[in-house]
Amino acid sequence: MPLSPAPTDEIYEKYLQKAITEINELGDEISKAAGDRIPVLGSGHPLADVFLLKHRPQAAEVQEGVAFYGRAGQALLKSLQRLHVDPLAVYGTNCLKFAEQDGAEARPWLDRELHIVQPKLIVVMGEEALAFLNELEFPLADTLEAKVGELQRFTPTIEALLVPDIDASLDEQPAKTRFWNAFKQLGPWWAELPPY
User: Fold this and answer.
1) β-pairing, 151-153 with 159-163?
2) What is the rounded average pLDDT of the residues 127-150?
3) Pick from 13, 19, 51, 77: nearest CA to 189
């Protein structure tokens, strides 16, 4: 007697549970490697469509141990709401998991985060994050260009959008405007995303 296929929701739940387990294991590994440093872990949905990527954590993030905690997170939440992007479909992290960290130590962790989350779009915030991502040697990845506000192919299943560094964009209106003009490309991309 043939087995009936599992419902889509059941399959998704299994992938979600696997992603939660893997993200938690990665967080434990980063915490163990921290020593006397405070780790700043990624946050958000473990199977997010949108992956926000900054280069290094800011003081508020280090204090709380969570990526995008503080001013940048609040600004991004308002921006996502303006664009009608579901914030529950977003995951955010830093390339570097500690305030002062060697990139070679951090690259394998970001590589694993990308493999776990499997986003459809990476929003790369700033030139340093772009250089870090390009150095990952991610499977089937193209080298991303410094084209602010333009969607680019990263892999066959992941696009990338380069925007200015959010942390450097919060204090002056011209910088805020440059960030917004690039980041708002997320809105039309999100609107065209097919439902599950």
Assistant:
1) antiparallel
2) 96
3) 51
Residue 85 C-alpha from the chain's centroid: 14
Query: Is the entire prediction scored with pTM above 0.90?
Result: yes
Would strands 121-125 and 50-54 be described as parallel, antiparallel, or unpaired? parallel
**Closest Cα partner for 160 from 186, 194, 193, 195?**
186
Cβ contact 124:111 at 8 Å: no
**Beta strand pairing call for 121-125 and 151-153:** unpaired
SS3 88: helix
Distance of CA 7 to the CA centre of its chain: 29
Query: Which token pair is 61?
Result: 């993030």
* Bridge partners, residue 125, by sequence: 163
DSSP H helical ranges for the chain: 8-33, 59-64, 71-82, 103-117, 127-134, 173-183, 186-192
- Which DSSP symbol is given to 66? B
Q: Encoding tokens for residue 23?
A: 């993200």
SS3 of 157, please? Answer: coil
Would you mind telling me the total number of residues written for the chain in this entry? 196
Question: 3-state DSSP call for residue 185?
Answer: coil
Chain segment 35-83, per-residue pLDDT in tens = 899 999 999 999 999 999 999 999 999 999 999 999 999 999 999 999 9
The domains found in the chain, sorted by start residue, are 8-192 (3.40.470.10)
CB neighbours (10 Å) of residue 195? 3
